[in-house]
Amino acid sequence: MSASNGKKKYRGYLTWTDDMDQALLDVLVEHYNSGDRTVNGWKPHVYTAAVRNVREKSNVDVTKDHVMSRCKTFDKHCNILGRILAHDGFEWDQERNKLVIHNEDAWSSYIEKNKAAACYQHKVIKNWDAISLIFSRDHAATSEDVSAGAENGQEVAMKVAEDFRDHTPSSPSTSGPSSQYRPGPPMLTQSNKQGRMKRFRTKDALFCMSGNIKNSFQISMKSNETQEEPKTACPKEIFAALQAIPNLARDDLLRAYCILTSSDRKFECLMALPMDMRKDWLLIEIGKK
Questions:
Q1: Does residue 281 have a pLDDT over 80?
Q2: 69, 15 in Cβ contact below 8 A?
Q3: Residue 125: its pLDDT value, please?
Q4: Beta carbons within 10 angstroms of residue 214's beta carbon
Q5: Could you read off the pLDDT of 20-69 as tens digits, one per residue?
Q6: Does residue 116 contact residue 77 with C-beta atoms inside 8 Å?
Q7: pLDDT value at residue 132
Q8: How far apart are CA 94 and CA 92, in angstroms?
Q9: Cβ-contact 220, 188 below 8 angstroms
Q10: Listed residue (251, 267, 235) closest to 281, CA to CA
């Protein structure tokens, strides 16, 4: 290690500090939001900005290779943790920056099939929000993740149905204690002011089911995501398209501009129409027809 201009210079392996990570991720998040990350990776100027910011903020003479190596580490964290968190029984503690395991049996079963995940039981990873924002799109859910999400939804649905059936008053011919009764899980009961437990109504049970079905659907959709950059309409392009519409009043133009800049889909709908129909369609959208 040598010194240059008062900065610590590293040529080989570099130990990253929290301050260095923060300086790097600040730049990556900024450029990610600006669309500077494509399916082929970061645009060249992003690495230049990242190296400069880490040097200035941490007084360490890092190189592009160091930044690329750290990005690979973040990518690995996102890959492994993202798959863990797709399973029921695990969540992320934002305050302690650690994985929370609610179901030890599920964890034992998971690491039995995923050995690389074992070290994440107690690993502290700061800036998880930024890491998952930037790198999560690179990792589509595996078929195992999709299956696990579906099974979790089915399991909850079965428990809800069982709890509802067991709490339903029996007919006279089947009255009496049932040997098959098992108390429902905590999420299926509510407490009233007297401290007694009451069963969920049907609509409450369906609400619980809908959350798990939604999670399963989101996981399954990840596997169908394409790696193309989303195409968004430029405000200048929208304004130019509105100016081209004959006899569109200034106030109507501005109202339409507000609508179209907040919805790419509506702008696509506008541009799909012939020019002589666009004004009428816009007036309908802004409520003047």
A1: yes
A2: no
A3: 93
A4: 11
A5: 999 999 999 999 888 888 877 899 999 999 999 999 999 999 999 999 99
A6: no
A7: 87
A8: 6
A9: no
A10: 267
Pairwise CA distance, residues 214 & 197, whole Å = 28
Q: How far lies 69's CA from each of 13, 74, 120, in Å?
A: 10, 9, 20
Using alpha carbons only, how large is the chain's radius of gyration in Å?
27
Whether the pTM exceeds 0.70: the reply is no
Matching residue, tokens 């309409």:
233
Q: With pLDDT > 70 as the criterion, what percentage of the chain qualifies?
A: 62
DSSP β-ladder status, 41-42 and 37-38: antiparallel
* Nearest CA among 269, 118, 274, 272 for reference residue 285: 269
